[in-house]
């Protein structure tokens, strides 16, 4: 199963708008995508699941994807995170 380590770099962390942006991007893909923090594993297509991680700026998370478009999904989600979810800071 492909996976990527990501670090939350926007000032406000995974708040509602950032979580919605990540879930929206994940929903474009057919593969199963999970986001992990420590022992918490959530569906990356769920805004509420993502928000449950309470990931502040600097938090390291693990993205895992399983399915035919897994690599493309990880590339797209990593890009969204690295672009700070479209936020200025």
From TrEMBL:
Identify the GO cellular component terms for this protein: cytoplasm
Give one Pfam hit by family name. PTS-HPr
Q: Which domain of life is it from?
A: Bacteria
Domain HPr, which positions? 1-88
Principal location listed in the UniProt entry: cytoplasm
Could you tell me the keywords of this UniProt record? Cytoplasm, Phosphotransferase system
Example GO biological process: phosphoenolpyruvate-dependent sugar phosphotransferase system
Localization, per the record, is:
Cytoplasm
- What is stated as this protein's family in its record? Belongs to the HPr family.
Q: Which PANTHER family match?
A: PHOSPHOCARRIER PROTEIN HPR (PTHR33705), PHOSPHOCARRIER PROTEIN NPR (PTHR33705:SF2)
Read off the NCBIfam families from this record.
Answer: PTS_HPr_family (TIGR01003)
Q: What is this protein called?
A: HPr domain-containing protein
């Amino acid at each position: 199963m492909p996976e990527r380590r990501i670090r939350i770099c926007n000032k406000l962390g995974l708040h509602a708008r950032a979580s919605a942006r990540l879930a929206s991007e994940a929903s474009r893909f057919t593969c199963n995508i999970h986001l992990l923090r420590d022992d918490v594993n959530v569906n990356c297509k769920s805004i509420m699941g993502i928000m449950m991680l309470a990931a502040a700026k600097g938090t390291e998370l693990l993205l895992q994807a399983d399915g035919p478009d897994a690599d493309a999904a990880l590339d797209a989600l990593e890009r969204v995170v690295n672009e700070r979810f479209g936020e200025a800071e």
